[in-house]
Amino acid sequence: MGGELSNRDSEHRAYHHGDLREALLEQAIASVNAVGSEHLSLRAVAAAVGVSPSAAYHHFADKDELLAAVKARGFDQLDSYIAGNIDGNLMVGPDANHVRKLMQAGALAYINFAVDNPHWFSIMFSGVKELQKPPYMESSMEYLKNIFTFNRGITIEDHALTEDVLLASVHGIAALVVEGRMDRDRVPAAIEILSTLMMGPDEHEHSIMTRKILATSGGFIARTATGGHKPAGLMLRALELTGKERPRVTFIMTASADDPQYLATMYSAMSGLSCDVDHLSLFTMPNHNPAEIIGKSDLIWVGGGSVVNLLAVWRAHQLDHLLHDAWDQGTVLAGVSAGSICWHTGGPTDSFGKELKPVLNGLALLPYGNGVHYDSEPGRRPLVHELVRTELLPLTYATDDHVGILYSNTEATEVIADSEVNPETGPAAYRIEKVGSDVVETRIPVGVNYPLTILHTRKKLGNAHRHQANRSGIGRISLCIYFGEVNGAHARIRSE
């Protein structure tokens, strides 16, 4: 009797004024976050808190009632995540860009909560059928649901449906990350895509010049009838990207030490096109003021050779800064082999000798590694994989001979080739990334022309994507073979 009174007195002292309910709830949340709700029991929670089951049952009739409280607290916490991520100043903005920022901030907070509390997040929505939500869920969704209320510039007839579509999309992204099917660092890009799909492009970003880089293992093909060479698909696409009827083209052949024969071949090849051609030589001294010729160019094409020497000479002449400025101003940057790797963080090269080694000090206008001649030189693929595995290279894009990748700003958006190719078996581009402890390579067929990041960690495209790739982009594909393969006399241009 005395012992029983003592125990009750102890419990009363520890959990007076309703503390026990809160302690039980906090312990249940901790248990759910640690191992999920499957093995949760009121008795186990009571034992963890240090009270008898009867004391716990005084506050919660059963496990279901305890889980309902856990769910409700989850939505309260989600409220805090969203409120904490939204700048109060944004709430007063009537224009679409303010709404866009509100949506992105709210969506990011929602996804962050899910990733930080995966088990808790999962049970919060268990048992919620169709679109009928309990009151606490309705309350928690207020920040996301009210986003379009601030958008006075967009007319949406069915706000309720729009809210549900937005919530379903954000919830889907959260689920992908929680399930390990999307990396957390891709969430901002996913939210940007979602907001663009729902609201159109950001007005501010849309007003800024789209920067373009065409990184290739191609460019020219031999003229079989008359001899010499002619521009092929990748060069023709580069010219098209300028948007000019008669673009100003500048060749930079630093990687080949400004080889006169290489330059002469380029001039001859371009002679039949509607463009004005010039070149910038740096050996043994500049033939033009670098700032002036780069500044007036619509297209800069960089030839193959030694990417290591190219980078060193460019930096000595401050071309790294000049080319970055030109890119920002809308000049199309393009090139083959060394003229592809240079725009990236680095990649495999034979610039140091016959054995392939990494160059890791590229201009990094594009935040990826780069592999060229991926199908024609057997040592390149395994070295790319090793460099990605050891994280000497970040996520890396590679191209087979005859193939190039177009980057819009820093997003890979289009795969182009020299001719109409079989998307299943022909030359292609590749995305190589580290996923956990594995290196995953995704083949990207020629003709794909949407953001390539959506192919993340897929080992191959589905039939629907292959069909789209087959239909899109064919009109932009024409003959192209990278220049170094044309004949033995120019084989050394293959070095990058």
Task: Give a short overview.
The chain is α/β, with parallel strands linked by helices and 496 residues long. It contains 20 helices and 15 strands.
- Number of domains as seen in the coordinates: 3
Helix content: 40-55%
> How far from one another are the termini?
89 Å
Low-confidence stretches: 1-17, 88-95, 129-134, 147-156, 204-208, 454-496
Strand order of the largest sheet: 5-4-6-7-1-12-13
CATH homolog superfamily of the largest domain? Class I glutamine amidotransferase (GATase) domain
- Number of extended strands: 15
Q: Give the CA-based shape.
A: elongated
Roughly what is the average pLDDT, rounded to an integer? 77
Strand content: 5-15%
Tell me the radius of gyration: 30 Å
Largest sheet: 7 strands, mixed
Supply the number of helical segments: 20
CATH architecture annotation name of the largest domain: 3-Layer(aba) Sandwich
CATH class of the largest domain: Alpha Beta
Structural class call reads: alpha/beta
Give me the CATH fold name of the largest domain: Rossmann fold
Overview features:
496 residues; Arc Repressor Mutant, subunit A; 7-stranded mixed beta sheet; 4-stranded mixed beta sheet; 15 strands; elongated; disordered N terminus; disordered C terminus
